[in-house]
Amino acid sequence: MGKMSKDKGRRGERELANKLKEYGFDARRGQQFCGANGDADVVGLPGIHIENKRVERLCLYEALAQAKSDAKDGEMPIVTHRKNHCEWVVIQPLDDWIKLYKESNCFPDTRLEQMQEIAEG
Fold first, then answer.
1. Which burial class, exposed, middle or buried, applies to 96 when counting CB atoms under 10 A from its CB (0-12, 13-18, 19+)?
2. What's the burial of 65, exposed, middle or buried (CB within 10 Å: 0-12/13-18/19+)?
3. pLDDT for the residue numbered 106
4. Which among 79, 97, 84, 94 is positioned nearest to 40, based on CA atoms?
5. Cβ neighbours of residue 1 closer than 8 Å, sequence gap 6 or more
6. How far is Cα 3 from Cα 65, in angstroms, rounded to an integer?
7. Strands 76-81, 48-53: parallel, antiparallel or unpaired by DSSP?
8. Whole-prediction pTM
9. pLDDT tens-digit profile of 45-67?
10. How far, in Å, are 42, 76, 118 from residue 70 at the CA level?
């Protein structure tokens, strides 16, 4: 990876950390810049492992595989991504998204049993 790509990645990590701060989270770049491998790119969301990508063309499944591989036990892996002139997006496995949705206040109680049956099924 060239210096310009690494610099863009670092800027993207700072940019995402600042965006998360706007939402009230105590976020910052991870410790990977200190030589530790496998650490999240951005930290500050307990229980979430963030693999951050600030590229024009994302290799989605490779990025998600890296997030899954680097996540510690009990951490939910996500990939955050933004390309130039676009908004930030979060990419995660559907099973993890369903868990979050079920825990939110948006999930109707009447559907809970049906979803559990499908998940076990």
1. middle
2. middle
3. 76
4. 79
5. 9
6. 24
7. parallel
8. 0.80
9. 999 999 999 999 999 999 999 99
10. 13, 10, 29
